[in-house]
Design a protein that fits this description.
Blueprint lengths: L1 E8 L7 E6 L3 E5 L3 H11 L7 E6 L2 E2 L5 H5 L2 E4 L17 H5 L11 H11 L6 H11 L4 E4 L7 H9 L3 E5 L3 H6 L2 E4 L3
Parallel strand pairs: 3-8, 3-9, 6-7, 7-8
Antiparallel strand pairs: 1-2, 1-4, 4-5
């Protein structure tokens, strides 16, 4: 499977972006602000359509009609849990926090399974990013998109890529950038 952005220009962006991500490889998107990098992930998921250029998977172009089908191939790990609106926080943070997100509500994942996966990612602090990455990985989709990946996630993301997943992460983490198969930098 090949995920391609070919000369994609988003509204308000100063430059186009091109990249080809492959199964079994870790691609990192760096440079610019965290908000700009997140915007590119949204474009990859079809939430923001390009002004010019194209996004495709195995040559099939992403458009308003195909975006939902594309997203069925993807798991997205945001950097934090958005608690605006209907979502209620539980103390201590638990699996309920993560499953308040609509896309995760029906997953058969217990606190024990989630905790085990979180320990594989990071032996340290279990912040929202680690919880959300664990759930995204447990969804077992062929494409994993990760927002603001941290150095502590490097070994885990490399292992997922080695297991055949296509991993695309936004990051400024030096260790992760050094371990990536491909690094794409946003220009200012």
């Amino acid at each position: 499977m090949v995920f391609e952005l070919n000369e994609v220009l988003l509204d308000g962006e100063p430059h186009t972006l091109s990249l080809m991500a492959h199964e079994g490889r870790l691609t990192c998107l760096t440079g610019g602000t965290a908000q700009r990098r997140l915007r590119w992930l949204y474009a990859m998921m079809g939430f923001e359509l390009p002004k010019s250029g194209f996004v495709s998977i195995d040559g099939e172009p992403l458009d308003a009609r195909s975006a939902t089908l594309f997203r069925q191939l993807m798991a997205f790990a945001p950097s934090r849990l958005d608690t605006v609106g209907e979502v209620q926080r539980y103390a201590p943070p638990s699996v309920q926090d993560v499953f308040a997100l609509k896309a995760n509500r029906d997953l058969p994942i217990s606190n024990g399974i989630l905790g085990e996966e979180m320990r594989r990612i990071s032996a340290g602090d279990a912040h929202d990013g680690v919880r959300l990455l664990a759930v995204a990985a447990l969804r077992a989709k062929p494409i994993l998109l990760v927002e603001q990946a941290q150095d502590s996630m490097t070994d885990y993301l490399v292992r997922l890529a080695q297991q055949g997943r296509m991993v695309i992460a936004t990051t400024t983490a030096e260790t992760l950038l050094a371990a990536a198969d491909q690094v794409v930098e946003l220009f200012q």
